Amino acid sequence: VMVLMLIGLCHSGPGNDDDMCAIGGSASCCNICPTNMEQRITSLETRLQNTEREVQELRRLTQGNTFTKLTKKCTPRVAFSAALAGSGNTGPFMTATPLKYKKVFSNTGNCYNPSTGIFTATVSGMFFFRFSMFNNMTPAPNSVVSLMKNNERLTSVWDTAASDVHDSGSNAVVISLKVGDNVFVQLEPNRAVYDDGMHYNTFSGFLLFPM
User: Fold this and answer.
1) Most buried among 28, 74, 167, 172, by the most CB within 10 A?
2) pTM of the predicted model, to two decimals?
């Protein structure tokens, strides 16, 4: 407002000097050059525009950091890895039996139950699972283990009796799960796996992304 008053006063005719001095208390206001005033206004406008750009950039950065923090906070973390514990054969059994991997290396999210060997999804999403098996020559037919989703067989590892003493194998899948779905490794009937404390038989999985 003061800037506009000064510009208006300086553009007044010479006959208004007394009025101007009466308002401003001095005639010195008449010495202000309109050109200098315009330069000052232009400079202020430039600084204001720069400030607005800085505020917008800070707002953008703040919103980005907030989104990242919220994403990390809201995205569930699910991962586990376990192995058979102890030494000797597991099996054979008369019926298909879930393997209980009691040596737990990690269990983020606590979705894997070492007492049952079953992973239960607590979030819907895309998951990765991998399992391995190892056998030792036994009188029983050698190993056949399968990765199960509820009652559905997803994939298997199969090794039959032969002249070689030790065999191992592994398999993996990427599957979608809904909350409450169960995933486990099943030892097929009349089959066996072997371990000697070196953790050859493992079961691992983790959430790739929620859906």
Assistant:
1) 167
2) 0.66
